[in-house]
Amino acid sequence: MLFAGEFQGTLLQGVAAAVLLMPNGRRYTVSQLVSVNHKDEAEYTALIIGLKKANQLRLKTLAIKGDSDRVFNQVNGLTPVTEERLKKLYRVAIKSIRTFEKNFLRMDIPRTKPPGVISR
């Protein structure tokens, strides 16, 4: 699963998206417009909607990839979640991740565009 969130600060809106790539080549895409105050909220929402879709598909193993340092570090327990606005999203993400028999969370999707630039 690949996930990403973007945020438009002046509008307090963002988009959260995830793509699940199945072994048979099939792809499932989920996306959602979100009202958020920070990019990290959009990133967490992207992770969560992707995890929900993976659960709906009854997947047992999931490789999770994204480009958010903060989400990666917090979900892997490397840094604490100190912002109140992220604590609930963090708890939802952790609860969802734990439903899989195996999961792998890596941050190895390099940005090819500056943050905030969305491809058309």
From TrEMBL:
Transmembrane segments: none
Residue ranges the record marks as coiled coil: none
Domain RNase H type-1: 3-102
InterPro entries in the cross-refs: RNaseH-like_sf, RNaseH_domain, RNaseH_sf
GO terms of molecular function: nucleic acid binding; RNA-DNA hybrid ribonuclease activity
Protein's name in the database: RNase H type-1 domain-containing protein
Organism: Crocosphaera watsonii WH 0402
